[in-house]
Amino acid sequence: IYHEYFSENPDSRRSEYATPLGIYEEGCGLDKVTMSWGHDEYLYQVVKDRLPEEALYMIRYHSCYPIHKEGAYQALMSDHDRAMFRWVDAFNVYDLYTKSSERVDVDGLRPFYEELIEEYLPGKLSW
Question: What ranges do the domains of the chain cover?
Answer without folding.
Answer: 30-93+105-127
